[in-house]
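Dear support,

Our group has been running a series of protein-ligand predictions, and this particular one with guanosine-5'-diphosphate is the one our PI (initials K.S.) wants archived with full inputs and outputs. We had some confusion internally about which version of the output was final, so please treat the block below as the authoritative record. The input we submitted was:
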Amino acid sequence: MTIQWFPGHMAKARREVTEKLKLVDIIFELVDARIPYSSRNPMIDEIIQHKPRLVLLNKADMADKEATKEWIAFFDNQGVKAIAINSQAGEGMKKITQAAQELLKEKFDRMRAKGVKPRAIRAMIVGIPNAGKSTLINRIAKKNIAKTGNTPGVTKAQQWIKVGKEMELLDTPGILWPKFEDQEVGMKLAITGAIKDTLLNLQDLTIYALRFLERRYPERLQERYKLPEIPEDAVALFDHIGKLRGCLTSGGMIDYDKVAELVIREIRSEKFGPLSFERPAEIENLQESE
Ligand SMILES: Nc1nc2c(ncn2[C@@H]2O[C@H](COP(=O)(O)OP(=O)(O)O)[C@@H](O)[C@H]2O)c(=O)[nH]1
Ligand SMILES: [Mg+2]
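Confirmed final output from the archive:
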């Protein structure tokens, strides 16, 4: 289910995250590795203030490895630590604890110097719907069934999931809204399944997706749909795919909706291999032109 975000929902989500912020040492900002810019909440910096943060590029298995490397370097340049993970397979889980320990080393050293009894790092996951928050929490919880009790002094009882001895993770994530400000971001969110594609025109979305493939991964597009050349005309491209795959109306005409559904389904199910829909260089240009 995709949540429709209205100003009231956004305010409530923000309030909930802000409230829990006090309970944790660090925020794990979960984004989709295929769209690390578009899947970030636009107000994340303002919401989490100066709380230490670790960006988790989730679904790294579905993303282009080269692009993911570029993204890690991009965040690094901004002084933000980012790591690639695959919550579904449980890859990168150890790296999360290690990175959190590194980021909080000074704080914990200071605490120790003051004679404060050592304790586990407390963390919380935040992210937009479908980023994989529940998958990551379940992944961690399964291996570490032992839940710690409630934390006293908190209005609502909070459950913590133990991650080894070193860390405790809040068992409910902070759900934040995606960016809505531009059409292209909307397209990327729809292609990756972060927002319902019924919010957009499916044929428009497909044209966007096909043009993206043509630009970044032309050979994969040509190979999959047996295209010696990629037609400039979108109708010709749809016609070709429709004929090839038998996406026809009962009258034998090309069914453009069927073509659109097929293409989007194939992209989502990785028929074109791992894909990254944005690169840091594109985002840098975008920010400069603002
Ligand atoms: N391939 C892949 N799929 C993932 C990964 N993490 C989550 N998913 C899938 O993404 C979808 C959304 O995940 P979910 O945990 O429900 O997202 P939430 O809304 O943030 O809690 C589900 O279909 C998950 O199986 C991952 O690392 N790799
Ligand atoms: Mg969830």
